[in-house]
Here is the input.
Amino acid sequence: MTAQIIDGNAVAAKVRDGYKARVERLLRQGITPGLAVVMVGDNPASEVYVGNKVRACRKVGLRSEAFRFRADAPQEAVLERIAALNADASIHGVIVQLPLPPGYDMRRLLEAIDRNKDVDGFHLYNVGGLVIGETVFPPCTPYGVQILLEHVGIPTEGQNVVVVGASNIVGKPMALMLLQKEATVAICHVKTRDLAQFTILADILVVAAGKPDLITAPMVKRGAVVIDVGINRLPDGRLVGDVDFEAVKERASWITPVPGGVGPMTVTMLLGNTISAAERAASPRL
Ligand code: NAD
Here is the structure.
């Protein structure tokens, strides 16, 4: 069996097309959805991600602004900026680009964001919503995975899902979202003994560990759907995921490539959350 490739760029383009009418409706009401990105330090990968977000906003008619702070800026200055953005009615979404340099209290900064503008979905209020199945702003990467699965028509109800990686921004919310969709979910992490005994049971395997070639072909059930969230830069400059793509695609039924799989969906979902935030601000009943 050779897997069908899940083309994240194509799905992302289609989802973004669907945003056009919503943005136009807002523009007719005199509202341009606005996203503010707060960035501290000069992490090169973060620079790339922020650049992508700003460009993507422009393409779908959203306004975006990046607020940069030096790595030694006082935390209070960042908190003041967040407070100003919370109070700015022309800004509908506020995100803090992660990771932060050492010395910053990530939770304090994330909790400072107005929960109605928390378009990354990292505020405790939104995390709580995810736990009880009343998501306000679903975190972008796992939400992107969910949309990919829906798009290619892969049902999750009753499926065995194994999520490899238990971070607060990918693994845990991913597991909660698929649990909400009535999948049977196992979460594995760096301390899991014998990872393969779990992965081999997966009908849907989502991998977000940040370890190239962590998942090899014998660890994958024949016909499984494999979603590779990992993004790793190899010493030779190549960008790869966590899955041995060439070997695993001979066992899986569907697989996401890296790049061009989950990555384009993450930014797309951020745009979607920002549009939703603007719609809710325009009609508070939403
Ligand atoms: P993280 O470092 O915060 O968490 C990694 C998780 O993987 C941890 O729970 C850890 O226990 C687990 N893990 C690490 N090594 C493991 C191993 N050998 N076996 C089993 N579990 C292991 O990372 P993160 O922020 O969740 O990101 C994970 C990966 O996803 C990274 O490569 C990151 O670049 C990528 N990522 C991609 C997107 C995207 O849009 N495609 C978005 C966010 C993160």
Q: What stands out?
A: The first helix runs from residue 8 to 28. The first strand starts at residue 4 and ends at 5. The two ends are 45 Å apart (CA to CA).
